[in-house]
Amino acid sequence: MSEQPPNLLQQLGRSSRAMYSAFEGRVGQALPRWRILKALDDLGTVSQKRLACHLQMDPGALTRQLKPLEAERLVRRGTDPADNRQTLVTLDAAGSALLLAAAPQRQAFFDLALSGIDAAELEATLRVLRVLEQRFRGMAAGER
User: What is the set of domains in the chain, with CATH numbers?
Assistant: First the structure.
């Protein structure tokens, strides 16, 4: 196989790291934190296990992200009264306010990032990224 696929994957990594950095600089929140807060806004009170599945995030990594969010009173965590084995997570009022206040910066970030890229290029890029995502998930699951 040619050199192109490894270079594409290396570029994907560099682009991802640059996006994370730019998002935090423009929006004022790290992207993983934003994703958690936004998911809770969309889902409402949810088990930590379901939240991890929804975000496609390692449960341990999610716990590490939730602890400071809880300390900042952006989210609340507590035991599920119906099942003591489960931890429920809820977006707090301060978390809702943060999302609302930063929403214009988030939209401006995406508008600026995608400006000047025509629809056909965006669609082709999305198709390639979806194929890669499926392959990576299969590889992680031990598929060939």
Answer: 9-101 (1.10.10.10)
